[in-house]
Design brief:
4 helices, mainly alpha
Length: 133
Amino acid sequence: MSNFQKYARFHLIVVFAALMAVIALYLNPVTSPGYIAGFSILGLLGFGEFYYQRAGKKPIADERDEQINHRSVLIAYTVFWVCFVAWGVLTTMKFSSEGSIPLGYVEPVVWIALCLVVIVRSTVVLALSRQDS
């Protein structure tokens, strides 16, 4: 397994741990208002850079890894923008008669968007890495 695949797998584990924490906090009646705190686990994504430390003289990424990275970022942000525009249109349609969108629909959008981008990007990296092997 290449460092690039380890990096993607680490990101998936962190995001799924964060989502499980958010769900657990949301379902608990005592901590339900503070479910956004579960997204703090996403701070561990910064530690993924340790996978890129050079081991000996082995290169960090070759041309194939760079191409996979480019494709994964392109696909992830395409999915992000499609979902973000759909969210904007649907929430506007649902709450247009009320005059404003409730904060509960706006507050977690940034964190959910980050999770979506990381999940799609890491999944594409793992899929393309296996496909090209």
